[in-house]
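Teaching note: in complex prediction, the entire set of molecules is handled at once rather than each chain in isolation. The prompt given to students was simply: 'Predict the structure of this complex.' The entities are:
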Amino acid sequence: MARNYVAFKGTKHGLVLWLDPQAEFNEILEQLREKLSSTRDFWQGVTVILKRSQREYRPEEKRRLEEIMGEFGMALKEEPEQMAKSEKAQLEEPREIDRDSALIVRRTLRSGQSVHYPGSVVILGDVNPGAEVIAGGDIIVLGALRGVAHAGALGEEGAVVVAFRLQPTQLRIAHFISRAPDDADLPEPQGPEMAQVRNNLITIQSYSV
Amino acid sequence: MAGKVLVVTSGKGGVGKTTTAANIGAGLALLGRKVCLIDADIGLRNLDVVLGLENRIVYDLTDVVEGNCRVRQALIKDKRTENLYLLPAAQTKEKDAVAPEQMKALCDELREDFDYIIVDCPAGIERGFKNAIAGADDAVIVTTPEVAAVRDADRIIGLLEAAELYEPRLIINRLRPQMVKKGDMMGIEDIIEILAIGLLGVVPDDENIIVSTNRGEPVVMDRKSKAGQAYFNIVRRIEGVDVPFLSLEEEGFITRLKRVLLGHS
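The expected output is the structure of the full assembly:
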């Protein structure tokens, strides 16, 4: 098994089923079946919440998920609206972030597109004005960051934003917000830069290894 | 204080709704009115860019409607004009994130604090349009002197009537007097004859608009430009002042010489 596309996580709302938003749906099903078979008795009678926000599932796909769940005596329910909302509210209170996982996005984010992820996010492309990246951990853009980036969105003040060309509309790290000054003709960035919080301010410096 | 809700609409895209909304808003604020601009174009927001306020957005219209924040938190104060505020649209959502009843409730809430609430309507006649007009007391229709734009404006007038907005007023945008003179463009009279609604103003085609839009500064601030003057006149007419219409004819050298020498026009 190359990667884990399927994970169960215990939350205060119950057991949540997390599916890799980037994985092939068939591979997800395969892994799910494998996982469940290995501990067959454990799942009997369990209700699992399907996480939204990561990706929209088509009715057809949901039906197939439910089928597999049914085979193991499990039930699947949709994530209640309230839970998705309370996740936003958690921006206030610091929470442990998933340092080990990163979402790799292999495309350019255009205006109106957004990526939300509890771990770190790596973008292999640009983030255009009007696009947003919101990550619990760090944000790394291998391209130009011109949109909005919110690193450490769950409260981690030590999170950083790194980009080949760091020209964001707005930068947020944990609960700090900054934007470029209005009338200044800012010099174009010369090479990769990193933004981080220092003395309660978001500061930018050139990034070199 | 019971403010007035004015929706700027057109049906057709690209005729200058957003520019018009920004200029009417900024103009009214210059006259000392307290103005709130609402960008109802969810998913394709532009008003923030035209006003140069994009980098200040934290919360937006959908956040307010969904109860993620209070209206006050989402309002962005303009950087040049006192009294001007923007409620931006969400860029990452879709039109159905907001319902007409919610829009109406929001407009009613804002009425308490503002003299004018100007709603920038999206192109089209679907959900976004219905949202935008839901709370409106009055409508301003923007058209350009093109057959397609006038056709769409006519459709919009009908839809507004159905929504009990009976007296929309017309702004003819991007008029080129030279072309009208040559008979290559519809004139003001031609358009009024078809639409048969009151004329609020005529804005000449002006390169300054492109410059000011890209810079994020409404052209109404620049009273030297023809478009800026036209918008300022529109704003005063909205305020109930009887302002004569601008002469859009470019004054030729000879006429100007005659006027200066002989003292007549």
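Point out the following to students. Chain B has one domain: 4-262. Chain B is about 40% helix and 15% strand.
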